């Protein structure tokens, strides 16, 4: 069966390993992911997704958008969701065949300004993880792009944040402009409740956005201090991963932040100064089932 849960468990495990890998170790899970995606049980559906697609033409068109600044190139995705899924499948297969190529690809389209693995991790979080989620949904629907009718989630988004109030304001403004109701604890009456009690009193949300900013410093004993998010922010991230499931939690990261490996598998988006994070967050909200005009996010 092409929708064998055990096969997709293996695919998810390969992605988790890839997300936490370092420069010396990312090749193995990447090749493993490619092998699993080429499983014979998926052959027919992969053929239907990629039939007629020109990956090199897509890459040439995308590279032509490169301006004078590093990281200004944009992938020229088509409008049809099926073609986007098929092109991404072809990209992941090429990454698996030539693991070193993902470094150049990340530097061109997902430039973070950090070390090579920063760009590789950006490709994993912003392209591969969403692809695996959407690919599984496509396979389960046996190739039908039309979504199954279901009870819509509340159009309320919980925003978890640290001390960067500018980042909080930008996220809240974007969500409210996109007709979401935002839940921000500091704007809610305390009523002598603890933080967890306040969160539980506002758990009727359909999505959570967690803003990680380098507000604190920490390290393992004997090591060098490194920037990290506030501990209460990580606690709330874990809470919403359990309450809403990973596909309804999105993490925005501004600046360099040390992140525990326990949170592998969540969607990570760099909160860039150019505002590209709005489009990426908008896509995640749409993938979670919300109606959203992505033109407003551009």
What do you see in this structure?
The protein has two domains: 5-140, no CATH class; 156-296, Rossmann fold (3-Layer(aba) Sandwich), CATH 3.40.50. It has a five-stranded parallel sheet with strand order 2-1-3-6-7, sandwiched between helices. The protein has a two-stranded antiparallel ribbon with strand order 4-5. The chain has helices at residues 5-20, 27-37, 43-50, 55-63, 81-97, 101-109, 116-140, 165-177, 195-201, 231-244, 276-287; strands spanning 156-160, 181-183, 207-212, 216-218, 226-228, 249-253, 267-270. The chain is globular and about 60 Å long. With 298 residues, it is α/β, with parallel strands linked by helices. The protein is built from eleven helices and seven strands. Helix 8 links the parallel strand 1 (156-160) and strand 2. 47% of the residues lie in helices and 10% in strands.
Which SSEs are present, and which pair or pack?
Layout: H1 5-20, H2 27-37, H3 43-50, H4 55-63, H5 81-97, H6 101-109, H7 116-140, E1 156-160, H8 165-177, E2 181-183, H9 195-201, E3 207-212, E4 216-218, E5 226-228, H10 231-244, E6 249-253, E7 267-270, H11 276-287
Parallel strand pairs: 1-2, 1-3, 3-6, 6-7
Antiparallel strand pairs: 4-5
Helix pairs in contact: 1-2, 1-7, 2-5, 3-5, 5-7, 6-7
Level-2 CATH architecture of the largest domain: 3-Layer(aba) Sandwich
- Number-wise, the strands total 7
Overall 3D form: globular
What is the subunit arrangement here?
single chain
Report the mean per-residue pLDDT as an integer: 85
CATH structural fold name of the largest domain: Rossmann fold
Query: What is the radius of gyration computed over CA atoms, rounded to a whole number of angstroms?
Result: 19 Å
Strand content: 5-15%
Structural class: alpha/beta
Question: How many DSSP H or I helices?
Answer: 11
């Amino acid at each position: 069966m092409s929708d064998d849960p055990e096969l997709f468990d293996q695919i998810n495990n390969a992605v988790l390993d890839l997300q936490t890998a370092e420069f010396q170790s990312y090749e193995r899970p990447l090749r493993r992911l490619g092998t699993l995606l080429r499983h014979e049980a998926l052959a027919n559906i992969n053929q239907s997704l990629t039939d007629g697609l020109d990956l090199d033409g897509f890459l040439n068109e995308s590279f032509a958008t490169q301006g004078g600044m590093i990281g200004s190139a944009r992938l020229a995705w088509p409008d049809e969701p099926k073609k986007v899924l098929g092109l991404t499948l072809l990209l992941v297969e090429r990454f698996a065949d030539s693991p070193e190529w993902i470094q150049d690809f990340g530097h061109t389209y997902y430039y973070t300004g950090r070390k090579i693995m920063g760009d590789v991790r950006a490709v994993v979080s912003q392209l591969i993880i969403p692809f695996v989620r959407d690919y599984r949904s496509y396979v389960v629907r046996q190739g039908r792009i039309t979504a199954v009718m279901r009870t819509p989630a509340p159009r309320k988004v919980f925003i978890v944040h640290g001390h960067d109030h500018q980042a909080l304001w930008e996220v809240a403004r974007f969500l409210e402009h996109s007709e979401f109701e935002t839940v921000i604890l500091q704007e809610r009456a305390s009523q002598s409740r603890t933080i967890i009690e306040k969160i539980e009193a506002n758990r009727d949300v359909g999505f959570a956005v967690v803003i990680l900013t380098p507000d604190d410093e920490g390290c393992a004993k004997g090591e060098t201090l490194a920037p990290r998010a506030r501990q209460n922010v990580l606690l709330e991230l874990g809470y919403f991963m359990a309450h809403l499931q990973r596909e309804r939690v999105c993490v925005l990261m501004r600046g360099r932040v040390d992140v525990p490996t326990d949170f592998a598998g969540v969607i990570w988006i760099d909160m860039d100064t150019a505002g590209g994070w709005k489009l990426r967050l908008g896509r995640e909200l749409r993938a979670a089932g919300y109606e959203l005009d992505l033109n407003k996010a551009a």
